[in-house]
Amino acid sequence: VAGAVLAAATGDVRVLLCGQRERILAELGGSLPPGLDIVDAPQVIGNDEEPAFAVRAKQDSSLVTCCRAVREGGAVAAVSAGSTGAMMAASLVEMRRISGVLRPAIAQPIPNKDGFSILLDCGANADCKPEHLVQFAYMGAAFASAVLGIEHPRVGLLSIGEEAGKGNVLVQETFSLLAAAEGIDFYGNVEGRDITRGTTDVVVTDGFTGNVALKLLEGASHFLLDQIRAAATSSLTAKAGAVLLKPALQPLREKVDPEAYGGAYLVGLRGVSVIAHGRSSRTAIRNAILHGANGARHQVVEQLTEQLARRRAAAEAQG
Amino acid sequence: VAGAVLAAATGDVRVLLCGQRERILAELGGSLPPGLDIVDAPQVIGNDEEPAFAVRAKQDSSLVTCCRAVREGGAVAAVSAGSTGAMMAASLVEMRRISGVLRPAIAQPIPNKDGFSILLDCGANADCKPEHLVQFAYMGAAFASAVLGIEHPRVGLLSIGEEAGKGNVLVQETFSLLAAAEGIDFYGNVEGRDITRGTTDVVVTDGFTGNVALKLLEGASHFLLDQIRAAATSSLTAKAGAVLLKPALQPLREKVDPEAYGGAYLVGLRGVSVIAHGRSSRTAIRNAILHGANGARHQVVEQLTEQLARRRAAAEAQG
Fold first, then answer.
1. pTM of the full structure
2. Residue B240: Cβ within 10 Å count
């Protein structure tokens, strides 16, 4: 609720709070600030519930209500920090896949020196086939265009060697499909270190590797920042140095903060769906809401739909 | 050569330099310091050569000569910063696998708050079967005991959720095998963020995921340290702060430096083989040599052989 208040205060978005009306009103101190509305949703889906079952059983839960609002046109994007599995299931059921999309994927912007790269799939599909990865490449490119404003995004395939032919069987088979794919600026294989180097605008991988990579990146950032904090308080001299250095480090802290983007996008659906971290602060929720609105404003769904249709037409023309 | 000189200067090891005698002597200024010897190996295997073919064709290359010295007892460990593929092939051909080992694996110590965890496989096997991962668990545990001195190493299986059943098909099948495996302290699934948390002493994964993780970790550390360096020189105040803070950060820098360990071990062979980074500094080479000697001193090969034999006997007894 605090994050929604912050988002609405920017004046850029109107926020529909889907949830238990009385509890939301209590959080708001009894009255609705401008830019906020409530959609009453009495049911709650917990983190421990089986996603598909819970979504079917609880049609009046906040998650399902929120995704339904997007389908019915009452909202342009759904944002939730609830159960990831349930948010994926609710998004899939309510928004449905774009025609031709085999598997929606989780797309996460990852900071690098010059900006952000999109890593996908970050965990929606643990086991993938080559044709899934090819679709991720199209979805990632459309997403990078729409959300990051990159006109001709370069797409890399995550592997364990730069040369064609390096990697596991999945990557080897995907490589030749991507090399022949129409309308993709395929860079070739990239390696783990290229993710934070920004070698390509989009990095395509299966949901297992992508999720491990995303969580490792989070863990490594925390580890390094924790250790630096510990070192910075280890002596009076170090403390003095840290005080002087802190302002210069602030932009970096904000950039590598997982809260900067607030959430990952579930792409491949007929609506914008943003999955925020369960431990999101109000700032993270604010950012997730603004980025969801941004996706809708830049018509990421329409762009992706058009690109996929064009690709299918080209493939059919080829025979 | 400079790294070998540093290693020999510790007095803990004798180093056999395998390579072109005249070039090595030239590097040494014409005379051999104490603790160094040369084994003449006129041939060179380049990074671009097909490993298995090159190793068969160039029996007098430095790589093959070095691995042969271990087999023949002239050395206790082989260390190379040459082609990773060729070093793997030469190690495999010359040292051969421990009886019962299906696939050797690359084991890399990863720094965490309290010490190191062993991540394997970091790239020897891009596609794995569950029984390979089970062997990696045994090899990683034996390695953690012998090299890190951990008496009862806990073993985690890298996945994308902590609960049993989370992960891709490979991980799901491996989970039940590990849960039933004798002589392994199996912790269950760990996630990407657990690698730098040190949740377990050993993290088991396939060579594709492990290699992506290792290189991502390297990339993320470089990215963060580069950005901190840039911030630290962005103003006079920041520069002054950095000067004061620097001594306190030194231990951290050394710990996360990929050169601290100097190289990854190829485990599962009848000899100690260390694969150093192609861009290793003299310090990294020194450390790789010392860690190779350490592995031999702690009898990592003998320990692993014994553990695998015990396990096979137990499995046969079970029927």
1. 0.89
2. 15
Distance from C-alpha of A179 to C-alpha of A285, rounded to nearest angstrom: 38
**What is this model's ipTM?**
0.88
Distance CA B92, CA B101 (A): 12
Euclidean distance between CA atoms A181 and A6, whole angstroms? 43
- Through-space distance between the first and last CA atoms of chain B, rounded to whole angstroms: 52
Among the residue ranges A198-212, B150-164, B205-219, B305-319, the one predicted with the least confidence is B305-319
Nearest-Cα distance to chain A for B167, in Å, is 6
| Residue A14: both structure tokens together | 């109107």
Contacts of A229 (CB under 8 A, 6+ apart): none
Q: Would you state the structure tokens that stand for residue B221, as one six-digit string?
A: 């550390």
Q: At what angle do helices A62-71 and A84-95 cross, to 10 degrees?
A: 30
CA–CA separation, A116 and A153 (whole Å): 12
Instruction: Count CB-CB contacts under 10 A for residue B46.
Output: 10
- Are A158 and B212 a contacting pair at CB < 8 A? yes
- Whether residue B102 contacts residue B72, with contact meaning beta carbons closer than 8 Å, is answered with no
Query: What six digits make up the tokens of A164?
Result: 């064609």
Tell me which of A112, A190, A245, A249 to substitute to probe the interface with B (most B C-beta atoms closer than 10 Å). A245
Question: Cβ neighbours of residue B158 under 8 Å, at least 6 residues apart?
Answer: A212, B171, B189, B190, B191, B192, B195, B203, B204, B205, B209, B210, B213
- E strand segments, chain A: 15-19, 36-40, 77-80, 105-111, 116-120, 154-158, 185-190, 202-204, 263-267, 272-276
Letter for the amino acid at A108? Q
What is the spatial distance between Cα B270 and Cα B72, in angstroms, rounded to a whole number?
11
CB contact, 8 Å: A260 with chain B?
Answer: no
Q: Find, in chain B, the residue whose alpha carbon is nearest to that of A211.
A: B160
CA-closest candidate to residue B99, choices B296, B306, B316, B292:
B306
Helix locations, B111-184, DSSP H = 130-148, 169-180
Q: How many CB atoms lie within 10 A of CB A233?
A: 12
Interchain contact, B245 vs A249, CB within 8 Å: no
Token pair recorded at residue A151: 């006109």
pLDDT per position in chain A (319 positions), as tens?
999 999 999 999 999 999 999 999 999 999 999 999 999 999 999 888 899 999 999 999 999 999 999 999 999 999 999 888 899 999 999 999 998 899 999 999 898 888 889 999 999 999 999 999 999 999 999 888 878 888 899 999 999 988 888 999 999 999 999 999 888 899 999 999 999 999 999 999 999 999 999 999 988 888 888 888 888 788 888 888 888 888 877 777 777 666 666 788 999 999 999 998 877 889 889 989 998 998 899 888 998 888 778 777 776 776 5
